[in-house]
Design brief:
Number of helices: 6
Order of helices and strands: HHEEHEEEEHHEEH
Strand content: 5-15%
Oligomer: single chain
Shape: globular
CATH class of one domain: Alpha Beta
Radius of gyration: 25 Å
Helix content: 40-55%
Largest sheet: 4 strands, mixed
């Protein structure tokens, strides 16, 4: 005759849970250590390049996405305090730019002189404020941003940069440097010169000033085509 019996798996389940948590913690520690190692090596390489070529300005700010507006203002403060210039190009590090075409445009058009307030770019207009995700903005109170430049590349006149420098202590850093620029400059209403030859992404045509959102490999390919045929799109 078989005698029925009962047993419980509480201890087994608890052990499985403990093992799972330990593996999860180890994985998190591994990811954290890999990130610390990566950022440490990156910091070393950036400092080496800055020392060798003097082509990098290191500003006193925690390097996270939300601090990009503050980083930008610190650069403009440094620029205004240390250099004479007529205008300044802001761009990203995943961009290739046809500097010669841009300089020719600035030279040929009488509008671009250092004594006027202007901003040259392709502009985002009637752009809704995001409330979720990476670009969530809980500080700007209107549902629509003022017009702001496409961050891939834009050029500011000296007067505009001087105004940013003079008022930097009163300028609130919103969720991104591009929308912040649009909000800040709405106070002085500079002339927005909208030029569709600025590209906001990797698309390109024969008059494009730039290519944007490129991988390092794509940057090499685009630059190679530009050197061979003076064209950012291709040699075809």
């Amino acid at each position: 005759m078989m005698v029925p019996f009962l047993f419980q798996l509480n201890e087994v389940l608890e052990m499985v849970e403990i093992v799972y948590k330990m593996n999860y913690i180890r994985k998190e520690e591994q990811i954290t250590n890999e990130w610390i190692s990566y950022t440490k090596n990156l910091s070393i390489n950036i400092n080496l390049e800055a020392a060798e070529y003097a082509d990098i300005l290191l500003v006193d700010v925690v390097d996270i996405y939300r601090n990009l507006p503050s980083k930008l203002l610190k650069f403009y403060n440094w620029l205004s305090s240390n250099h004479e210039y007529s205008y300044v190009l802001k761009t990203d590090d995943d961009i290739v730019i046809d500097i010669n075409r841009l300089l020719q445009k600035l030279k040929d058009d009488v509008l671009f002189n250092s004594s006027s307030n202007w901003l040259l770019s392709r502009f985002r207009k009637e752009w809704p404020v995001n409330y979720i995700g990476k670009w969530a903005d809980y500080d700007y109170r209107s549902p629509i941003y003022p017009s702001f430049p496409c961050g891939a590349a834009y050029i500011l006149s000296r007067n505009v940069v001087s105004w940013l420098h003079d008022n930097s202590d009163q300028l609130f850093p919103y969720q991104g440097e591009d929308v912040s620029m649009g909000i800040w400059l709405a106070a002085i209403k500079p002339e927005y010169i909208d030029d569709e030859n600025f590209e906001c992404d990797s698309r390109c045509h024969y008059l494009s000033y730039n290519r944007a959102q490129l991988t390092p490999e794509q940057i090499y390919d685009v630059w190679s085509a530009y050197e061979k045929c003076n064209n950012l799109c291709s040699c075809k």
